[in-house]
């Protein structure tokens, strides 16, 4: 495993060398600012995650992996098991990690390359329940908030990163979710496989009525204090990264990814006075299924991994101590503002400029 040092500007808020086994400088979070990544030896093992069932991404994988193998022959390239099987002939030099041993990704990986869209990055997050190595993401033509690089520029971007030419990092906050029974004990998996482990989420935890037609009743607790009982289609707990996803569609605020906060956003509440709220990063949120609910509620994490909660069962969400370090083109704030303007057309007029050009020219 290659050694790396991460330095940061602005204000450090926590020293946690025991949390980040990869980092040689004992810092984890920073308020409002960029981290700078500096390799001491260069990455020895690179994990490449690709979007499935896409011909363009398949070609990009072969191109990127072959280029790395040729230019940096001492680097190990790792892919997921199904990818290793599918590309056994064209990429005979890659390695893989067996199914069921995801913890090995954290242990051996120095750098992650994603090829695809935002969904590919969410999948990458799900592979790392604890510390995450730096992630550089390449867009395959998909518009997204998490895709700072175009695949056409992969050689320049990767060479600068691997050869230590001042990479800028944004630590994207993630969420930790646990599921509990009425007595507070951790829930067991329905298939009898044992206790449901801690669940790490990048975008949002969604508690929803699901397939049931009736509104669900949800008790909302913050740090053990009940703040309200919501009657709604559901509630979303989102990270700042997730603020431009489901939470935004439900009327939630847009939050800069450098800000540490938890977003609580209602989905179609019965009371129109129930507005989205932002909570401090050290808050612990509990959402409990109320006695008045007519059916169970569904829990989904980043749009996947659905669980069911019955009456008096609850989920608990707090900030994960393991953010995702994402490589940016420039300063994190500049990347984010460009995305807001380009993708959301934020605060832009809906006038058709082409149709108005005749009047403007006159």
TrEMBL record:
<dbReference type="GO" id="GO:0016226">
    <property type="term" value="P:iron-sulfur cluster assembly"/>
</dbReference>
<dbReference type="GO" id="GO:0042736">
    <property type="term" value="F:NADH kinase activity"/>
</dbReference>
<dbReference type="InterPro" id="IPR017437">
    <property type="entry name" value="ATP-NAD_kinase_PpnK-typ_C"/>
</dbReference>
<dbReference type="InterPro" id="IPR002504">
    <property type="entry name" value="NADK"/>
</dbReference>
<dbReference type="GO" id="GO:0003951">
    <property type="term" value="F:NAD+ kinase activity"/>
</dbReference>
<protein>
    <submittedName>
        <fullName>ATP-NAD kinase</fullName>
    </submittedName>
</protein>
<keyword id="KW-0520">NAD</keyword>
<dbReference type="Pfam" id="PF01513">
    <property type="entry name" value="NAD_kinase"/>
</dbReference>
<dbReference type="GO" id="GO:0019674">
    <property type="term" value="P:NAD+ metabolic process"/>
</dbReference>
<dbReference type="GO" id="GO:0006741">
    <property type="term" value="P:NADP+ biosynthetic process"/>
</dbReference>
<keyword id="KW-0808">Transferase</keyword>
<keyword id="KW-0067">ATP-binding</keyword>
<dbReference type="InterPro" id="IPR017438">
    <property type="entry name" value="ATP-NAD_kinase_N"/>
</dbReference>
<keyword id="KW-0418">Kinase</keyword>
<dbReference type="Pfam" id="PF20143">
    <property type="entry name" value="NAD_kinase_C"/>
</dbReference>
<dbReference type="GO" id="GO:0034599">
    <property type="term" value="P:cellular response to oxidative stress"/>
</dbReference>
<comment type="similarity">
    <text>Belongs to the NAD kinase family.</text>
</comment>
<dbReference type="GO" id="GO:0005524">
    <property type="term" value="F:ATP binding"/>
</dbReference>
<dbReference type="InterPro" id="IPR016064">
    <property type="entry name" value="NAD/diacylglycerol_kinase_sf"/>
</dbReference>
<keyword id="KW-0547">Nucleotide-binding</keyword>
<keyword id="KW-0521">NADP</keyword>
<dbReference type="GO" id="GO:0005759">
    <property type="term" value="C:mitochondrial matrix"/>
</dbReference>
């Amino acid at each position: 495993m290659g050694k790396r040092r991460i330095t940061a500007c602005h204000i450090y808020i926590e020293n946690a060398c025991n949390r980040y086994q990869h980092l040689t400088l004992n810092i984890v979070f920073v308020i409002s600012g960029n981290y700078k990544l500096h390799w001491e030896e260069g990455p020895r093992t690179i994990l490449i995650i690709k979007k499935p069932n896409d011909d363009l991404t398949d070609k990009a994988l072969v191109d990127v992996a072959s280029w790395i193998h040729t230019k940096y022959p001492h680097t190990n390239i790792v892919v997921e098991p199904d990818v290793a099987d599918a590309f056994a002939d064209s990429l005979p030099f890659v390695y893989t990690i067996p199914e069921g041993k995801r913890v090995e990704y954290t242990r051996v990986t120095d750098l992650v390359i994603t090829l695809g869209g935002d969904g590919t990055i969410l999948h990458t997050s799900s592979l790392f329940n604890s510390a995450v190595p730096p992630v550089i993401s390449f867009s395959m033509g998909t518009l997204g908030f998490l895709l700072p690089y175009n695949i056409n520029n992969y050689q320049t971007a990767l060479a600068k990163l691997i050869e230590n030419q001042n990479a800028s990092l944004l630590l994207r906050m993630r969420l930790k979710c646990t599921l509990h029974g009425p007595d507070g004990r951790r829930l067991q998996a329905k298939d009898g496989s044992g206790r449901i482990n801690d669940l790490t989420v990048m975008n949002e935890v969604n508690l929803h009525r699901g397939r049931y037609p009736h509104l669900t009743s949800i008790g909302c607790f913050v740090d053990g204090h009940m703040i309200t009982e919501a009657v709604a289609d559901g509630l979303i707990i989102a990270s700042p990264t997730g603020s431009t996803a489901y939470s935004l569609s439900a009327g939630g605020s847009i939050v800069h990814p450098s800000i540490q906060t938890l977003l609580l956003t209602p989905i179609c509440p019965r009371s129109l006075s129930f507005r989205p709220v932002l909570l401090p990063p050290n808050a612990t949120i509990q959402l409990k299924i109320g006695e008045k609910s007519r059916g169970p509620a569904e829990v989904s994490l980043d749009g996947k991994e659905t669980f069911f909660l019955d009456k008096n069962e609850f989920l608990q969400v707090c900030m994960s101590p393991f953010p995702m370090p994402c490589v940016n083109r420039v300063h994190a704030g500049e990347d984010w503002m460009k995305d807001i303007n380009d993708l959301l057309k934020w605060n832009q007029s809906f006038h058709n400029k082409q149709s108005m050009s005749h009047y403007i020219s006159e």
